[in-house]
Design a protein that fits this description.
alpha/beta, 8 helices, globular, 273 residues, 8 strands
Length: 273
């Protein structure tokens, strides 16, 4: 991959990177389609998540989904899939880590204590290997998105972070690998996630500006679904991810995390844009 990247840059072509952990779905394909018009060469990386990331189910499933992932990518006409064994690019016992203080601990950081440090370190490794001009990332994980923007600015990576809107199912549920693992009853419960966000948006439109009132409204929606366990509800600044008490003229990010069965699902929307 390093030799390939050098050759591409020698030809003065632009490289686009779509980083993934596997288990591809329509959200990833949307990221691919968006970046294709901005670069000459598209690389999709598929590297299983860290065993410490909290995504053990995805980690175990990766070998069986890799073929499916590649088949899903074929119609998109991408140029390369970079799918090395994790241990070939990332040390299982790292002594070097990339930590973005502050951002890694906000939002979902308390739920996924190692996740964002592992993800940030992995992203820096990928940037060094693939040397992309553009990196495609989804709005679905706003914390990882803001961390990526911070490291590219602070460490002077010469790539642009391009944001793809969250892809949703017809019922509003954010596209996720986990959805295919849910029972019909659990899948129906997952639709409540976006309904909670919509409730906050409606209340904001009606004049509610206190964050705790909007959070309580979301919590009540989620409490109506017995299969759904609320892990986190927050209203924060979209850039700093610091909690807001009152929503003024600036945009605010409403972010949630829930558990349904074994599935860990996150979603968000920005109000007052």
């Amino acid at each position: 991959m390093s030799h390939l990247v050098s050759r591409v840059h020698t030809q003065r072509k632009r490289i686009g990177l779509v980083p993934t952990w596997g288990g591809l779905h329509e959200g990833h394909l949307s990221m691919v389609r968006t970046i294709k018009g901005l670069v000459d060469v598209v690389v999709v990386s598929i590297i299983p998540p860290s065993p410490h990331s909290g995504s053990d189910l995805l980690l175990r499933a990766h070998p069986s989904t890799l073929t499916q992932d590649v088949e899903l990518l074929v119609p998109t006409d991408i140029d390369y899939v970079f799918a090395p064994k994790r241990q070939d690019v990332i040390s299982p016992t790292p002594v070097t880590e990339v930590v973005v203080h502050g951002l890694k601990d906000r939002l979902f950081g308390g739920l996924r204590t190692r996740f964002y440090t592992d993800a940030t370190t992995e992203l820096v490794i990928l940037l060094n290997i693939t040397r992309p001009d553009v990196v495609s990332m989804s709005q679905k994980d706003p914390q990882l998105l803001m961390i990526a923007r911070r490291i590219t600015a602070d460490l002077h990576f010469s790539c642009q972070i391009m944001v793809t809107p969250t892809v949703r199912e017809p019922d509003g549920t954010a596209a996720s690998w986990w959805l295919s693992r849910l029972s019909p009853e659990q899948r129906q419960a997952a639709a409540v996630i976006y309904k909670g966000l919509e409730k906050a948006q409606v209340l904001f439109g009606a004049g509610e500006r206190e964050a705790h009132e909007l959070i309580q409204a979301i919590r009540e929606v989620y409490a109506s679904e017995v299969l759904l366990k609320t892990d986190y509800i927050g209203i924060v600044d979209p850039v700093t991810l610091e909690p807001l008490t009152t929503i003024d003229e600036r945009p605010a990010l409403v972010a949630v995390a829930v558990t349904i069965g074994d599935a860990h699902l996150i979603d968000n929307l920005i109000i007052n844009e």
